[in-house]
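P.,

For your records, the input lines for the assembly:
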Amino acid sequence: MLETARQALLTPPESKAAGGPALAVRGLSVFFGRQAAVKNVSVDIATRAVTAIIGPSGCGKSTFLRALNRMHELNPEARMEGEIRLFGDDIYSRHVEAVAVRRRIGMVFQKSNPFPTMSIAENVTVGLRLNGIRNRKILAERAERTLRMAALWDEVKDRLHAPAISLSGGQQQRLCIARALAVQPEVLLMDEPASALDPLATSKIEDLIVQLKKDYTIVIVTHNMQQAARASDFTAFFYLGELVEFGPTAKIFTSPSQKQTEDYVTGRFG
Amino acid sequence: MALAIFVLVLLIGYELLHGSRLSLHQFGWRFLITRDWDVLNEKLGALTFIYGTLVTSAIALLIAVPISVGTAIYLTEVAPLRLRQPLVMFVELLAAIPSVVLGLWGLFVLVPFMRDHVDPSLEKLLGFLPLFKGPIYGIGFLSAGVILAIMIVPIITSVSREILRSVPGLQREAAYALGATRWEVTRIAVLSYAKKGLFGAVILGLGRALGETMAATMVIGNIPNISASLFAPGYTMASVLANEFTEAVSGLYLSALFEVGLALLGVTLVVNAFAQLLLKTFAGPTIKPQH
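Structure tokens returned:
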């Protein structure tokens, strides 16, 4: 499984996307100990589109996101029920390792977390190097391509070998996006990627998300309603661990069918 | 407070310098490169002790560092949560063993074991190296190094564990999200983040090994000797101080012992400075805490 995932790194993601949703979630529940953080959620995540997940703090949206690439398993208390299929493959099948799943579904976190001992270029290519790609030319090419994709190339091309932590917060976050993109994941998960950034850096990240959806399937958790409205095609509203409403973003924000959704998007609670 | 420590170190240095002025005057700097320790004829030099201290400490580090860092990695990254606390207590228990007790154990258990099993096997396997050639007594540099290793494992382990625990969870998650296996996460996210701190932990252990007296004294043989063979008996700076202060009758003898103490302080400082230099050269930039 690991080997096939490693092979897949060299083929672009386009060839894998053939109709249907990127992720099909069925009856997903996630528990921490006895507490259910996500309750019986079913949803299809559309291919090459941005799906935003909104909801008040503690509604389970981050847990839901982390279950999509099995990151929640890092918490030994966590347990899940239900089924998630990535382009038809059951990612919780007993024959599939979490490691292989995460190679296909990348993730960007709330706070930027570049590896501080590595240079900018090394941060971008670390995923490839983990997979045994050593050829410097390939690595340099991929670093440039990915940094361009992350709209960071022009700002760093003259100091690729400077430490990653010499970048500003917004640049670091775009570097983390580049690092996730370099292994050409089929889906990119983003957990409030702009919540720690100033408005200018935030708008750069949003522009980038809109750019990236041409090639990637993106799921983004956000606290920021405007961000969801601006950057996403579909929106899922979570409340108390349940998926209250899911639909095209325009509909969720203009004519939601649930009262709770309307109250939340109009700012009446949350 | 910091100033008080500074003054204390200066005072200790002054005391040692003052005590050793006779010997300094008599032997000059050649004291440090003289092999003889002939008390009757008052031909005295510290080279054998410096050698013994450095060799035993080096052996101790070679053995203790992989074990300690490995244990710390196991305790923070691998061990099941329920096991961690008991194991940590165990490591700390090891640190609480008085060195004289460890020395006794060394003399009555470790030394015979080294003599009958470890040393002969080493000679058979690696006997082509001068390090593992020569008569086997059991007591000697190697046994002392092993005892010192046992003594510094707890300190290196617990400091390393604290350092590894201080690596932000976000660093680990970054690596996990790239599809890294647990070992890859440890390597790219944890160890590279922590390497500077781990180096510091090793230096703490080294400081302990250089100065440790009792346990080494009991198993090293206490014979001023420089020999390529690690099976041979030797002497360390700390041991000669402990053993011979009570017998030092002549002023020059006593003064020479003071100078050995001064040399021990000097070696410790030089080794630490050298380590700092290594750290600056190889460990890269200091990591600012992320916020």
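Two observations worth noting. The longest helix of chain B spans residues 47-78. Chain B touches chain A through 25 residues (CB under 8 Å).

Regards
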